[in-house]
Amino acid sequence: MYNFEFKQPTTISDAVNLLKSDEAQALGGGQTLIPTMKQRLASPSTLVSLTAISEMKGICKNDDGSISIGGGTTHAEVASHADIFAGLKTLAENIGDAAVRNRGTIGGSLANNDPAACYPAVALSTGATIVTNSREISADDFFQGMFDTALEEGEIIISVRFPVPTSSSYQKFVQPASRFAMVGVFLSKFADETKVAVTGASEGGVFRWSEAEAALNENFSADSINNLSVDQNDMISDIHASKEYRAHLVKIMTQRAIKGAS
Fold it and tell me: CB-based contacts of 20: which residues, under 8 Å, 6+ apart?
């Protein structure tokens, strides 16, 4: 590690002001940023910790039935809260290990937009709204490619607002060493539509599988996607799985998610 300044503001406004300085970077749970710094892949001169900002923590139901989760809320807190819907609860319960779940935050995960992270899938599938210190961004507009989001320099995720589906399911094919998703599929069934979001598979990061959504909106059954497949040319190929295998897993995990939400 190298020398850097560490700041721990207690208000959002103080954090925003600190992030205006050159080479300052926000720090959530640190589950991605700290290892990146150790490998010298990032070298901010100032870390602005968001962990002491109480207004960025907690979970509540809104008047319209949606659920808001503070950006500084940990995965463990999401997993254990009584108001969390089934698919999201399963997702949070199965992120990493206990240490990761007790340190990592939903805001940090979404801001980083790792192509194998779990939270981007639930945000995109439910049509969540990402609330920052300056605006609200729909999930469809937020994720812009691998490790890329609509966040501007110094912008902080304050909370995430999730519409609650009538039923939901998250199915993850786990990479055993990292516990990241080799392929993860989040399915959200609403009264008027079904949405399917896929993480861990595509070179472009999280995406909605629109062909599967169209088929499920006609006939909600695992058989409805028997003749569908994602383009394997768009899939990630690495030491864990080939493009062909990931394309195959997308279909299998989606069929499991359909059964899980039925």
Answer: 154
> pLDDT tens digits for 108-155?
999 999 999 999 999 999 999 999 999 999 999 999 998 999 999 889
Spatial neighbors of 27 by CB under 8 A, at least 6 apart, are 33, 47, 48, 49, 50, 51
Asked if the structure places residue 205 within a domain, the reply is yes
42-78 pLDDT per residue, tens: 778 888 999 999 999 999 999 999 999 999 999 999 9
With a CB cutoff of 8 Å and minimum separation 6, the contacts of 94 are 118, 172, 174, 179
- For residue 218, the enclosing domain spans 167-261
Angle at 125 between CA 255 and CA 213, to 5 degrees: 50
How many folded domains does the chain comprise?
2
Q: Mapping DSSP to helix (H, G, I), strand (E, B) and coil, where does residue 231 land?
A: coil
Please give the structure tokens belonging to residue 232.
Answer: 């394997």
